[in-house]
Fold this sequence. Notes:
The complex is a heterodimer.
Chain A: E1 19-21, H1 22-32, E2 38-40, H2 47-53, E3 60-62, H3 66-80, E4 84-88, H4 92-95, H5 98-106, E5 111-117, H6 133-137, E6 143-146, H7 153-165, E7 171-177, H8 178-182, E8 184-186, H9 206-218, E9 222-226, H10 228-232, H11 236-246, E10 250-252, E11 267-270, H12 277-285, E12 288-292, H13 298-301, E13 312-317, E14 331-334, H14 337-346, H15 355-367, H16 380-390, E15 396-399, H17 403-411, E16 420-421, H18 432-442, E17 448-453, H19 454-460, H20 464-470, E18 475-480, H21 485-494, H22 510-516, E19 521-524, H23 527-539, E20 544-549, E21 559-560, E22 569-570
Parallel strand pairs in A: 2-3, 2-4, 4-5, 5-7, 6-7, 9-10, 9-12, 10-11, 12-13, 13-14, 15-16, 15-17, 17-18, 18-20, 19-20
Antiparallel strand pairs in A: 1-8, 21-22
Chain B: E1 3-10, H1 15-26, E2 30-37, E3 43-50, H2 55-67, E4 71-76, E5 82-93, H3 99-106, E6 112-116, E7 120-127, H4 129-139, E8 144-149, E9 153-156, H5 163-169
Antiparallel strand pairs in B: 1-3, 1-4, 2-3, 5-7, 5-8, 5-9, 6-7
Thiamine diphosphate (TPP) binds next to helix 17, helix 19 and helix 21 of chain A.
Amino acid sequence: MSALVQPTSNQTAGVPDPWITGAEMLVEALRSEGVEVIFGYPGGAVLPLYDALYECGIPHVLTRHEQGAIHAAEGYARVSGKTGVVIATSGPGATNLVTGLADAMLDSLPIVAITGQVPTSVIGSDAFQETSIISISTPITKHNYQVRTAQELPGILKEAFHIASTGRPGPVLIDIPKDVANASGIFDYQEPVQVPGYQPTIKPNQMQLRKVVSAIRAAKKPVILAGAGVLHAKAHESLRQFAEQTQIPVVHTLLGLGGFPADHSLYLGMGGMHGSLVANMALYETDLLINIGARFDDRLTGNLQYFAKNAVVVHIDIDPAEIGKNVRTHIPVVGDAGESLKSMLDMELTPVQADEWMAYLLQLRDEYPFWYQQDGTLKPQRVMEIVHQQTQGEAVVVTDVGQHQMWAAQFYPFNGPHRWVTSGGLGTMGFGLPAAIGAQLGAPDRTVVAIVGDAGFQMTLQELSVLAESQLPVKVIIFNNHSLGMVRQWQELFYEGRYSETLLSNQPDFVKLADAYHIPGFRVEGEEDFARALQAGLATDGPVLIECRINPEENVFPMVAPGKGIHEMVGVKP
Amino acid sequence: MNRIVSVIVNNKPGVLNRVTAMFMRRGFNIQSITVGATEAEGQSRMTIVVADMDEPDIEQMMKQLHKQIDVLKVTEVTEQPMVARELALIRVHSPVPTRGVLSTLIDPFRATIIDVGVETVTIQSVGKPEKVDALIALLRPYGIKELARTGVTALSRDSDTVGEVARLQANTLSL
Ligand SMILES: Cc1ncc(C[n+]2csc(CCOP(=O)(O)OP(=O)(O)O)c2C)c(N)n1
């Protein structure tokens, strides 16, 4: 049984008072859920909650902005597989969570967000710091609740953790009015969760899977597209076995990276806008596309008219609404990726007869690797190679959004799961640094490297405070190209080089900035300098910041231009 | 042809907002929506009418509805044996001498005059939406002063309407 009560002042001698406040219930629930860390920021409406948290024993990380708190919770959730918890006050505290909620919604991350609210008696009166976070967050949460009485709080908390972490994970928000946090009720956390309207299908339909298996037998050009659903289901091992037994090659989505070993002979790399040529050609020419836990995002598919146009499409997804949403699907399978793979492994799987297909793909893979040309400047791609080398490919790599994100995805191959933290669906600049904080707390024994652009870094750089304060050994690597690189690239390629508001002329001194936060900083302009700085950084116990001066004109290639088919890649060779 | 979807939801604050927010976000257009009590306590029925759309779109709409945690059951009733009814209140310009004519006119529709004023009468009509449309068209030449339609509410004739949702969950989505 969970610790039911903390002794309260009005208890009679010896008999614990079962009545506790809403705020105390929150603490009890967090304990029962095994919450290891809370990210948050206090304010008027959450004073009762913060009072209950004081000396409660659950570590709290005070980020310097609520957006930082929720991205940290996301980073934590991504590497640990556990639910990230964030607390913010009403009004501006709650609205500062919005970007992170939307980000977690699109990338299916389990988050429980607690917001304070003005007292129930004044809800609707435009009270000080009142905002309708329920209305605001409805389209960007898996579910949300406004608690009306303390008595319903334990049930809601339990339900929220259940909904956030099961099925297709996602953010759940609980809005707690101040008077509810102060009111008392009986804490009962034993009741099993019952949500009649929420019954995710975990076990797949066996008949559908048998159809998949027979489609595999008939296929000449099969390919597996593996998304983050594989990682959520912790199904990487089953995926490897399935690919090996059927001899079907594997393409990853951006968010799926690490689900299948990058050094495997069946691995074709990442597909999509900046994916590998071989991955995209496989998706273009395949006659059997087996999508496991990916949602056919447009950055992956390119122009849908050309995507897997001759293929029988299998889509295995725990969320039935993803099936058939973007790509017509011939064999839908609703269920958990791991359960589905295991079921198929129990059926008779034989290697596909696809020698020609494999020979063709392997030739493309050899002929069109990711590339860059040494030109005397510090190459961001080379920086990623050095990071890979020095961390033996074992680091947790967290990125922000932009060109550096794509270089990291291209030049840091992952051989294992839960090491890649990036904002895929929403593409949120400012995600990287706070997410790295959460990732380090979720994987305390791993090396965490944050790869950020000079612009995105400046959106949440105040979180350097947290790195310094908690001495989290995150290695922050800034790719300084003095521009909003990815947007500048599009202006170069599609807007005749009219660099409208994408060149940053007045940059701060990033090394001095690090110094101001009591973090050692290095500025490097050459490859050897970088290798030395990183080596020194990795040898340090605490955080380090390395600013890499890279060529402002560096572009990410290869590329599927917007509106083009996935087979129409440009920049595939030097 | 319009599509009619019957949705059983938890009767909780904010549920209507959740459903309409989903329609707006996903770009589905609602023609009419009615919400009211059902036989079960704590549950409401929404009857949502949308313009005809392609099969994949309607399927996506139903799945998105079903994904809402407060949605318990989703059934498309357009093609099923069902009863769909709408109520309209129509205030028509009607000086006393024309009232006899008006009365005969609305009689075949089983519409009734429920309020009488000096210059106008108010007619109540209940029926299939097409019938209400026809009556309105017929009354228009007299001068319609005010019009209120409730939107359609519907029930399957067959009480066992879980078919659609069960089908979605059993992985046997139509292709
Ligand atoms: C919050 C937010 N605003 C705007 C964008 C659009 N955007 C995408 S990439 C990018 C440039 C990022 O520049 P930087 O952080 O320096 O990274 P780089 O592309 O140069 O590596 C911008 C502005 C975004 N993704 N997120």
